[in-house]
Amino acid sequence: MTQVTLIGAGTMGAGMAHRLHVHDYAVRVNDRSPERLAQLRDEGLNTVSDVHDAVRGSDVVITMLPDSKTVRSVVEGPDGILTVLSKGSLLIDMSTGAPEDVRQLGQLLAAHGIAMIDAPVGRPPSSAADGTLVIMAGGDAEAVSRAWPLFSVMGETIHHVGPLGAGMTLKVINNYMSMVGMLLTAEALTLGRKAGIDQTQLIDVLSKTAAGRGQLSVNYPNKVLAGDLSADFPMRLGLKDLRLALDLGAEKTSPLALGGITREFFSIALARGYAEQDCTAMLVVLEAIAGLTPSASSESVS
Question: Is 70 in contact with 102 (CB distance < 8 Å)?
Fold first, then answer.
């Protein structure tokens, strides 16, 4: 039977440990909090307070810690577990951290005969508890294949996204988009309240439009990512509406910081000749600034 150790039994890690346990994996759980370990022990999990004892003899060690610096400290620090990890074992870092830290740690482990993959997760703690996480794995194919049975217990959507560090890279991008969207949503809800719009109706309407459902679910796949920049909604009207929203925000003294930044990029897009092309051409504008080949041609207007 595969012996698994999970280090870091917070809200996400605890749910993952329970999933492995109920699917008959031999699981040891380690956490810095004695209170947390006591609770998990009462819930039927095998808890080990000393991290060296927890990982000794394990086939797979999973880390679910606050950041990659903490992971590196646990593994290679003065009292790190590197000295007791078994040669031929597999370390899976499912935390969210810096891709370069992951790559450096992977090189160190490889020199000791230990494989590593990074596999951060998406979705909330409830998904960890019911096994419906999204898992983004980075590493060589053989190592990811070894981890796949464990992933299939913890997640319902599993992607091998590239070499070591690729999982963290994708997770960082996801969280960037999520946090910017968090502020954007807060700005929109605040402006609605200050303008006297009923919040329930505001949410009901926005949740049924591309604005609320997310551009990646509606507009981008159908337009620029399909190579089509013909205007469903032209850039010049997008700029006009941004100005209207910013005027309303100024009138109601409601902060719209993201709107101000977005207006500047729409102005850049118009200056570059995209006035009559679809608003999703913003991707082409940013790709040009970043020195990338555009996803769609500026002539792709039907």
Answer: no
